[in-house]
Amino acid sequence: MPRFMDVHHHMEGITPEALHEEHAKDLEHQQSEKGVRFIKAWADPKAGKVFCLSEGPDMNSVQRVHEKAGHRADEIYEVSIEEE
Amino acid sequence: MPRFMDVHHHMEGITPEALHEEHAKDLEHQQSEKGVRFIKAWADPKAGKVFCLSEGPDMNSVQRVHEKAGHRADEIYEVSIEEE
What we know:
The structure is a homodimer. Chain A has two helices and five strands; from the N terminus they run βαββαββ. The first copy, chain A, has helices at 16-29, 59-68, and strands at residues 3-8, 37-44, 49-55, 75-78, 81-83.
């Protein structure tokens, strides 16, 4: 299943509790999009950036989950290469 | 140890082999910066973006490793909140 990294802007001041709540909304709504699974999220509250790693059949399915959760991603990238 | 997400631009066409080589250079040079550890990297060769997750004492130490490896990051964020 393709993997995606998305970026949310204007998230200045986001708290651990708020990230937890928003991520929980993604997990709730991902059930409506076959194959979409949110894996992890990271936030920089000073710079106002949130990064989410997910997998799904395509970019639009991932974005639809974010839209249903009320926080459309500003950028989404298909990260077809992974290294660790 | 703080964690960082960095973003490299202009990486259009990067191959799995090239990402592997560049990441290996980070792993080699991280030994020169106390506490820096590169954890994972993802690439979107179409959009030309590479994302790296690392940890280290501060942002400058992480950037110095990238500089020694020959690929300075265009953006670095301290991702002080993590969720899965």
